[in-house]
Amino acid sequence: MGPVMVGPSSSHTAGAVRIGYITRKLLGEKPVKAELLLHGSFAATGKGHGTDKALTAGLLGMKPDDERIPHSFELAANEGMSVKVGTVTLRNVHPNTVLLHVEGLKGRKLEVEASSVGGGQIKICQIDGIETNFSGECPTLVVHNIDKPGHVAEATSLLAKYHVNIATMQLYRNVRGGYAVMVIECDQPVPPEPLQQLSQMDGILKVTYLNMDTEVAEKR
Amino acid sequence: MFSSVSSMLNAAEKRRLPLWKVILEDDCQERGAGMEDSLRKMNSLWQAMKSAAKNYSPQTRSSSGLSGGDGAKMRSLCPKASVGGKFIDSIIAEALSMGESNACMKRIVAAPTAGSCGVLPAVMIPLAERDGIDDNTIVDSLFVAAGFGQVIACRASISGAEGGCQAEIGTASAMTAAALVSIKNGTPQMSANAFAMALMNLLGLVCDPVAGLVEIPCIKRNVVGAVNAVSCADMALSGIGSRIPPDEVIDAMRSVGDMMPCVLRETGQGGLAATPYGAAAAKKIKEAGT
Fold first, then answer.
1. Which residues in chain A are closer than 8 Å to B63, comparing Cβ atoms?
2. Domain that holds residue A160
3. Contact A2 B110 (CB under 8 A)
4. ipTM score assigned to the predicted complex
5. pTM for the full model?
6. CA angle A124-A127-A132, nearest 5°?
7. What is the largest distance, in Å, between two alpha-carbon atoms of chain A?
8. A47: which chain B residues are within 8 Å (Cβ-Cβ)?
9. Nearest CB partner across the interface for A1, out of B32, B45, B64
């Protein structure tokens, strides 16, 4: 049962808000520019379902039950976030998929590809072209690092020290020795200390922590 | 998490607990949460359903212009002039209102989905009002609804894109029927019977929304789901059983969903969506959008 959400479709609306929200978290700063490229059923029926407004609302930091979602375009304009909506044809993806290009206040750019897979649940499929697969449903740690030995051990031992159990873990990289991403889904919320320590380590480029648990009553 | 209705009933019988309690404990175990927390979360869903009902606005229309206002129209029908009478009419009005609120981007509670959000509250709200049922009793029964819904999500699907409307309205109706029996102090087996009958009554229902939008026929199908839940709960309470066991009905629903062609699974290409009216409406909306 649940979530409490703004209609009309759990996948086209609630899921889209989550995608926008997680993208904002991954960017780590306030987005000022966003391009939303809708694919498949998102492109075909996205307008009637308010998918474009929902994604924008998420980028503004709103959650799926926020009653301001239908007015997100006006709110984005007020907050100085420019939004461009278009369509795209992607290969081998879920029918409800969107490709987002966002730019933050401090100039950071990010590309995220995400799918809404039903009942408001989502999947982040790509971050900056690197393949990923996570939902953001449990506390999730996304670590960007240089692809060299030891970083995975550093991250996991820090979590162990703070009694955080790892539910799933995925590792991705663009090329050998290049840019790597690890996605760690946890059973418990991660306290600020290990996040702080991890982000200061050599070779760790960026640490993003997502915890949507406080957001809405989760789907059972 | 229970993967069958039979295992849920067994657990209740073995531990001599009411169904809602077995499901609540299972939920706590699954999420590593305390009972208070689970009850609080479920209560917040119930409160959100009631506020959604209160916030219905008769004037609001969906952005496509296809829906709005019917809940109010139904509400204004004089019970003496109606066939169903006051209680049934209020259920119909509530189901329409909730479905319309959803189409108009207002805040609702997915139960189990947004498209079927009107079924459960449409019966619970008028029933609580008529019989003076307190929030705690309703919240307990929502665990029964959630438990049965979870079994369908696990064995089959609750998504129209995967299993057709039977997976959305059918599931919502079956969950509601089971919960209603528990409110009226029926046995777990009676809840399971109501659930099975409600689901089989809606077996085969396709997902064919006009222009792919959650409006036509989705809003009115919430009415069918709600009224079906009432009849199946009452049948079960009278002692009428389902010949086919609940788990077998779920499996049949899944297999019907698997056989359903793609055009009848939320693509807006078959059934009512493909009627001359449906096609023209879709064309008009598309042109207005570009």
1. 48, 50
2. 140-210
3. yes
4. 0.88
5. 0.88
6. 50
7. 49
8. 289
9. B45
